[in-house]
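Researcher: Going back to the complex we discussed earlier. I've cleaned up the inputs and rechecked each line, so this should be the final set. Can you rerun the prediction on the complete assembly and write out the structure?
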Amino acid sequence: MSHTTAQKILLYLIYGLVLLMVLFSLIAIQDKSFSGYKKCVEKKCERGGEKFCQKSREQMNCCTGAGGKLALDAQNKFTCVFS
Amino acid sequence: MISVLTIILFFVYLWGLGFTTTYFLKKPESWLERFFLNLAVGLGVFPILAILLNFLHVPLDWQVFLVVSVAFPLYVLGKKIKEKQLSSSSSQWFYFNFKLNHLKLTKSDMMLVVVLLIFFFSLLMYTKGAFSYPYLEDEDPWGHAVGAKYVALEKTAYDPVFSHQTKMDAVLSYIDPYPPAYDVLMGVLHQTSADLSWTLKFFNAFLISLGLIFFYLFAQLFLGNRSKAVLATFFLAAVPAYFSHFIWAHSLVVVLFFPAMYALIMIKEDKKWFYAALIIVASIWVSQNIEEPIKLTVMLLLFVLVASITAKRFMKKEFWAVIFGVLLSFIWWGMMIQKYTLRGFIRYFSGNNIVAATDSSLDVGVSSSVGATGSGSIFQKIGGILHSLTSSGGTGSRAYSFHDFFVASSQNQINSPIGIGIVLSLLLLFGVFYMMWHYRSRLVEEEQMALSVMLLWLVYTFWGVNGQTFLVSIARGPFRMWLLLAIPVVLIAAIGTFMLIGMLKKFKVPALIVLAVVVLGVLMTSGYQKYQLNTSMWSTSGAYSTPTEPIEYASWFATIPLNTPVFLYAPRDKLVIGLGGNTCAWCEDVIDFRRDIIHQDIPTLHSFLKSHGYQYFIANGAMDSRSFKGIFGENETNALLLKRYDEIQQSGLFKPVYYKKDLFVVFQVN
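Model: Rerun complete. Updated structure for the full complex:
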């Protein structure tokens, strides 16, 4: 059966988007580290300010998102530890 | 305290509204399916009807809803009697429209019976969890309790206007400008069910569970296969990402998606379904605060787009049903924009909710909220608004890993749990791979329309969930997208299962065995974790200082009649309302009195409480101190609070009637 142009575009779109999701997922693996945690906190600081990004909830979200566990360092500041 | 009358009324409202809306439309032949379809459509009508009545200043009273619900069914009944369609035989009277031969259960009905079993199990799980503690969980449900109480008593869904108001939502977080349909529904139910906590917990769980039946009705139409629809419904009930029993407006808005999709699909069969679709879309838009309606509308439009492309003709009716539905919701949104101005409105949604502000500060606020300078171009402003609508923030949002999707955990968020589970994830991956490999270019043909829609829904919701994981975010509040991700996941997993059954048949593996393994696997890797999370004890409001405190409060409130007026010294009226007491949290004189409460001497406090009918007064050292320090400052609080406690004890105006060591004292107002 011949396809219309719209059908062809839809087909390429579906396959393209599924591939894009795979690609994005692979890129995201790189963020699963301490640098991913730092990058996430920096982003939050830029968006919401220092007070916002130092909230335990935001720190926890960044750390869990990077695959680590939130902890306090020697200066009693939040850090993210990886086993 | 269970209210059987309210459960019956709930069915009457929904069935009556559904019957009225679908009377002239093509409906399923099965009476059982018709019954639940009426409930689904009725639920889709209720929110926008409530908004319309509110707009017309008709009191939001249960009797009004009852009359509107039963008026047309009674008219039809009367007409049938008049036309002598019913003979005088008593048995035929009873069977009106449900003649005995119509009540037979067909094979397709048996599928619905299985779904009903899933519904009952889901309801049991959710109610078991919701009633395993005597308070409301977290913060949102307390806010909904205040909103429902307000609607129940004041019978309106517009905020009261205060003379010195400087902020939107100072008291009623989920009413005005927040679209109030959920609180109206709960408030109307509370009018006939005295126990607000029971009403919220039960009907919230009931709505979510009923949503499973509505999902089945949509899925069997969408997939064109009842067996796949039943399996998908089971998956939906089992997947952790799809609803906990958390009390919030999402319980209504997401459930409305299913009748909306049903109506859109049915337009092809009967064009009059256009009106039902339009109404339900409007209801979606007045049931939650923009975020979820936008996401659901994108999903509806993706369906219309794919259906149009695969059918090689533009689905005009379906498209306009969505667009006019959104426009109809402006009965609410138009009023809000008129009331708060477009700027104030935008600022509210960007988190800056000051109503009374100078023009210059408004300019700055609006500019920052839309991410553009005051003198920026229209494109910058539109870009800024889009940025705000796709912001990947939100209290529970974070980056997710493969593990978060693949392994379901009972240690989870309570409002929007995450996770799919091992077996479901594998079925999903298999389904996606098989669909793309097996159908290839046939994916975009009309017969495979549903598969294309599911794939696009999957991409959209998966991308949405990963707003903080991926380079670009496409939806606001990623953690709330998990609820929607569950929908394409279970549909594709069900398709994947049947494809697997088909494949394994070649190796002479019986279908029943494959099905049993899948069901057991999903129960063990998704369902069990969901059950654990939903039947465990959840924590509650941060207003309490210790975990035992809410339990002790609830124990005392259980000893007094429901809706007894109780006044907390701390400005935490929502706790009184959520625990079954009563207080006018939204009354201006109460708010004004609280503004300077620490400076009011005890005779003034007493005469205020007496004149407002309060029977009990509760003092709680930790809660009062924390609240007052936030309002009056540390020095003022330290200087005055203990003095006030002494005065209360010595005044003779208050009689201590209950004391919980280190927690709180209850005084009777003499």
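Model: Worth noting: Chain A touches chain B through 31 residues (CB under 8 Å).
Researcher: Good, that matches what I expected from the previous run.
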